[in-house]
UniProtKB/TrEMBL annotation, chain A:
The chain crosses the membrane at residues 69-90, 102-124, 130-151, 188-209, 234-255. Belongs to the binding-protein-dependent transport system permease family. This is Carbohydrate ABC transporter permease. It comes from Nonomuraea turkmeniaca. GO terms for cellular component: plasma membrane.
TrEMBL record, chain B:
Residues 91-303 form the ABC transmembrane type-1 domain. Keywords: Cell membrane, Membrane, Transmembrane, Transmembrane helix, Transport. It is found in: Cell membrane. This is Sugar ABC transporter permease. It is a multi-pass membrane protein.
UniProtKB/TrEMBL annotation, chain C:
The keyword S-adenosyl-L-methionine does not apply. This is Sugar ABC transporter substrate-binding protein. Belongs to the bacterial solute-binding protein 1 family. Its main location: other. It comes from the Bacteria. Residues 1-19 form the signal peptide. Gene3D superfamilies: Periplasmic binding protein-like II (3.40.190.10). Keywords: Signal, Transport. It is found in: Cell envelope. It comes from Nonomuraea turkmeniaca. One of its GO terms (cellular component) is cell envelope.
Length: 269, 316, 446
């Protein structure tokens, strides 16, 4: 009896977790008029891709998705490469100023994004990068303290003997990093890449102030503008939202093992 | 890259002389190598993080709309915000949001974690399902929630209608707008919190429960005497990080209510954005940002002190 | 693995470089001598006819390409001002009276006076009231693009059900004491769930199915400013001056709008209509939740979609203690002072202000034109759809109040949205609200 109640409760929780996704997809597949006349949970019959087609072509959703892909992809690439380099220096090398600098990095982890927003806008303006991809990407592409911290912690769990052996064989720092540390760190790098991609893909605030034209508009802004424009045309808004959510869902399911594990770990640090 | 290889190669061939040169050369070499590795991240760190942090402190002493010339006003922005009822309303709204959000989310997450902390079929799959909301785009969620809570076409009022209840106008009613926004966050982060707590639960040694069971304690007693005390570090971590995160709520407010209706969801982050990039009072916005920063520093300091005192565990 | 890592490092660098190029090519301008102008607007309804007309323009000017940047009203202003602050504003953009004073003060607009003189442009074709609005100290910052006023949109079906005719909406009056004939008629149009009307015994104000009136105005332009004008209130002591909305005549107008909701129960409650999440008024009327709505002439197309085939009409606003009156406003196309292509931008603005272009837009029924000779073209396009829109023109020719000219429009708009929402909900008194907004908006004038 207790067991059944437990399963029921868990099942209810699971339903609540996926219901918004399913309802969104379901309603986005309905005909425009049906979105308003049928219940949110009644199935889309007949299924139509008209709404998707409309936001894709007329509303330039394809362009926004492409911009988001470029933005999140570039930031992720930069984050993984540069965080790894810095993490190795912090985690495995000793040099004057290391600990002070590392504490400096850690201290900035708690600075809310909105705090630096106005000065960051001004710096970007002086660099002439307002409303450019570069202005969008650069501030986040050099590795964040969070990423460096994550990788550094992982590096420290790798036994030092391996490196020492390589050093004796005459391998330099770069070789050790690339040949020994990286292959052993694949899980954490995959995690960092996935989390960075998801966070960047979902970012609203920075693109909101730094980009203005359709050419650089990312998908978060596209959806927000769509809501402002067609507040009651839910068929379009929902189709656009589904398009923004689904790529991430795919990435998440592909990497779910890494992500679930890394979240569990954050609490144990 | 070549530079590093050259240096390390030379280090390799000169192995015979290593002892003699140890005091200086390897140290310089290590220093150079380390800073080459650090250079990109350090450049980004200084230019895009450290400089703006100092910049915001300086800006908070000016009156500037970003177009004309800035004028120095000393502490006037801080005096103004101390006397500004809207700032206090924003602070209270933020606290209200945190209070709606954190307790519900933590209790739900704890219950889920307790339920999942046992061998059961489908446990792994359930974990993944519960974390699904965590990666959703807050902007899309805001849009979807606006629809779900639409008084006419939304699922919530349609469900309520089935049992004969005439649901309220959720987002245009100041009494309901904030709870709805909090519900987005609860939905999004409960699974994430659950995972962290579950990891904490799984780290509690099983023998403790067995011993306590032999002593004839009830499950409820065991929960309060074993689980809760040993889960405390995870629980506290979750509470602190989620609270700090909640203090920075922006996306959902921006998309769903723009701080309305009648300022009912005007939270600190949105207020700062509005002052900075709708009213273009960048000095005043910077002063507000400093206040938010101070608030979060306080919470972090509390966290630090707590961990100093309580860190008795090591799960490595 | 080494090559893999090196490869990904190179890939990262390549992506950044690619982004840099993308960023570069995004700058307006381009190769082969053709210039791309960015033209920013907020009204989706006007975009199709404007786009069509711009096709003609580009044919006549093969060296110029025009790219429209559309953002809804709410996003438009924060975006435009961020662009101005970031020195990356569109070459040509729609300008509104609310923001014009600030922009002219900050020097971000191009003075057209020398260009007009050089091309000997005939500016007498424009409505002088509108044209004067864009002049400051002998400088001209725009030519009239269009105009708008506020009218009383009604659902013909709701009127018929109440046994009223459009003529019954003419000549209504209101007053602060008992609401006058305006409220009487609105009571007839307010129906509860049992079919009882608000002027009948047994009417239940807690269960209203259809309200007599719907109002929604982030600033006041479509609701209480009109009552204010009809009550002898002046929003400002003078153009470019201080706000004076804490005067009794203004507070009475705010009180009246609150009374329509909370005292007479004839207007849709604020919990439904409060911006930004309340449905637009064409939706409210279309769903049958209200019989009439005070709204601007720019909403005609939206109402036509919600209530097609002559399902709606437009009546005059009621008269108040001082008389009739309506808020009258217009837009212009401004040239960004920092544009890299001033010559081409002027060519575009000349086209947009031309009779040929404004006629095309008026024919589509998008907006009343800035050239008065074309007003009939606009009215006829609506007559063909079975809607008489001449009420707007009558209102424009009667007593009007221009949109307030102030450098503190931002502050006023943000505060008004916040504070009036509270007043309409009954959470703040009209006097407190007026005093508060007045003080804060005036404090922002420097």
């Amino acid at each position: 009896m207790k067991r059944i109640a437990l399963y029921l409760a868990l099942f209810a929780g699971a339903v609540v977790s996926v219901a918004p996704y399913l309802m969104t997809l379901n309603s986005a597949l309905k005909e425009p008029a049906q979105v308003l006349t049928t219940r949110a949970w009644s199935p889309a019959l007949p299924v139509t891709f008209e709404n998707f087609a409309q936001v894709w072509s007329e509303y330039d959703m394809s362009g926004f998705l492409l911009n988001s892909l470029l933005y999140a992809g570039a930031v992720t690439a930069g984050q993984v490469v540069f965080s790894t380099m810095a993490a190795y220096a912090f985690g495995r090398m000793s040099f004057p100023g290391r600990d002070a600098l590392f504490w400096g990095y850690l201290a900035t982890m708690m600075v809310p994004q909105i705090v630096t927003l106005v000065p960051l806008f001004l710096i970007t303006r002086e660099m002439g990068l307002i409303d450019t991809y570069l202005g969008l990407i650069l501030p986040a592409a050099f590795g964040t303290p969070y990423g460096i911290f994550l990788v550094r912690q992982y590096f420290r769990t790798i036994p030092r003997d391996l490196e020492a052996a390589a050093h004796i064989d005459g391998a330099g720092t770069w070789t050790v990093l690339v040949r020994i540390m990286l292959p052993l760190s694949r899980p954490i790098l995959a995690t960092l890449a996935t989390i960075t991609f998801i966070t960047t893909w979902n970012t609203l605030l920075w693109p909101l102030i730094i980009t203005n034209s359709d050419a650089t508009r990312v998908v978060t802004l596209g959806i927000s503008a769509l809501k402002g424009q067609y507040s009651s045309q839910y068929h379009l808004i929902l189709a656009a939202s589904a398009m923004a959510l689904l790529p991430l869902l795919a990435i998440f399911l592909a990497f779910q093992r890494h992500i679930v594990r890394s979240i569990a770990l954050t609490g144990l640090k | 890259m070549n530079v590093i290889d050259n240096i390390s190669l030379r280090g390799g061939t000169a192995r015979g002389q290593r002892r003699a040169r140890r005091p200086l050369a390897p140290r310089i070499r290590a220093l150079v190598e380390a800073y080459i590795l650090l250079a990109p991240s350090l450049a980004g760190f200084l230019l895009f993080l450290v400089a703006p942090i100092f910049g915001v402190a300086v800006l908070s002493l000016f009156d500037w709309n970003l177009m004309g010339a800035p004028s120095f006003v000393g502490l006037a922005n801080y005096r103004e915000l101390a006397a500004d009822p809207e700032v206090w309303r924003a602070v209270l709204n933020t606290i209200y949001y945190v209070l709606l959000n954190i307790p519900a989310q933590t209790v739900l997450a704890l219950l889920l974690a307790l339920a999942l902390n046992r061998r059961m079929r489908g446990g792994k799959a359930l974990r993944v399902i519960f974390v699904l909301p965590w990666m959703a785009m807050p902007v899309a969620l805001g849009v979807i929630w606006t629809w779900v809570f639409d008084p006419r076409y939304g699922a919530v009022n349609q469900l309520l209608g089935l049992v004969g209840i005439d649901g309220p106008n959720w987002l245009t009613d100041p009494a309901w707008a904030m709870p709805v926004i909090a519900s987005v966050n609860i939905w999004q982060y409960t699974g994430y919190t659950m995972l962290i707590l579950l990891a904490g639960l799984q780290a509690i040694p099983h023998q403790l429960y067995e011993a306590a069971a032999i002593d004839g304690t009830t499950p409820v007693q065991r929960f309060f005497t074993i689980t809760l005390p040993l889960l405390r570090p995870s629980l506290f971590f979750v509470l602190v990080t989620n609270t700090i995160g909640s203090f920075q709520i922006f996306d959902t407010v921006f998309v769903m209510t723009q701080g309305g209706p009648g300022g009912a969801t005007d939270v600190l982050n949105f207020h700062i954005y509005q002052q900075g990039f709708q009213l273009f009072r960048s000095g005043y916005a910077s002063a507000l940002a400093m206040v938010l920063f101070g608030l979060i520093l306080l919470i972090t300091a509390a966290q630090f002190l707590y961990f100093r005192k309580r860190t008795v565990y090591d799960f490595s | 693995m080494s090559t893999k890592f090196t490869a990904s490092a190179v890939a990262a660098a390549a992506v950044l470089a690619l982004a840099a190029c993308g960023g570069g090519s995004n700058e307006s301008g381009g190769s082969g001598g053709a210039v791309t102008l960015r033209y920013a607007m907020w009204d989706e309804v006007q975009k199709p006819p404007i786009e069509k007309s711009l096709g003609e323009f580009m044919k006549a000017h093969p060296n110029i390409k025009v790219r429209i940047e559309l953002n809804n009203w709410n996003d438009y202003w924060s975006k435009l001002q961020t662009q101005l602050a970031g020195r990356s504003a569109p070459d040509v953009f729609w300008d509104h009276v609310a923001y014009f004073p600030k922009f002219s003060k900050e020097g971000v607009l191009t003075d057209l006076a020398p260009l007009i003189a050089q091309d000997k442009l005939d500016t007498s074709i424009y409505d002088s009231k509108l044209a004067e609005g864009w002049k400051v100290d002998g400088k001209v910052y725009g030519l009239p693009k269009d105009w708008d006023t506020i009218g009383l949109f009604y659902s013909t079906k709701a009127l018929k059900e109440a046994a009223l005719t459009p003529a019954d909406l003419d000549g209504l009056t209101w007053n602060p004491t008992d609401g006058g004939t305006f409220v009487r008629v609105l009571q007839k149009l307010t129906v509860d769930e049992n079919g009882k009307r608000a002027d009948e015994p047994g009417f239940d104000p807690k269960k209203i199915k259809q309200y007599g009136l719907a109002m929604q105005a982030p600033t006041g332009q479509q609701d209480w400013w009109n009552f204010a004008l009809q009550n002898g209130c002046k929003l400002q002591d003078q153009p470019w001056g201080k706000w004076t909305i804490d005067q009794p005549s203004c507070v009475q107008a705010i009180q009246f709008v609150q009374d329509l909701r909370l005292k007479y129960h004839v207007a849709v409650p604020a919990t439904v209509t409060n911006p930004p999440n309340g449905p637009s008024l064409d939706q409210v009327i279309g769903r049958g939740e209200a019989a009439t709505a005070m709204d601007g002439s720019w909403m005609l197309r939206a109402f036509d979609t919600a209530l097609p085939n002559g399902g709606f009409g437009v009546a005059d606003l009621p008269a108040g203690p001082v008389g009739k009156g309506s808020v009258y406003n217009g837009l212009t196309e401004a040239i960004y002072a920092g544009t890299k292509h001033p010559k081409e931008a002027w060519e575009l603005v000349k086209w947009l202000a031309s009779e040929q272009h404004q006629k095309a837009v008026a024919q589509a029924g998008a907006v009343w034109p800035g050239i008065p000779a074309l007003n009939d073209t606009f009215a006829e396009s609506w007559k063909a759809k079975g809607v008489d829109v001449t009420g707007f023109k009558k209102a424009a020719e009667g007593t009007t109040m221009g949109y307030p000219l102030t450098v503190a429009a931002d502050t006023y708009n943000v505060k008004a949205l916040d504070i009036f929402n509270q007043v309409w909900l009954g959470q703040m008194s009209p006097q407190d609200a007026a005093t508060k907004i007045n003080n804060e908006a005036n404090a922002a004038i420097k």
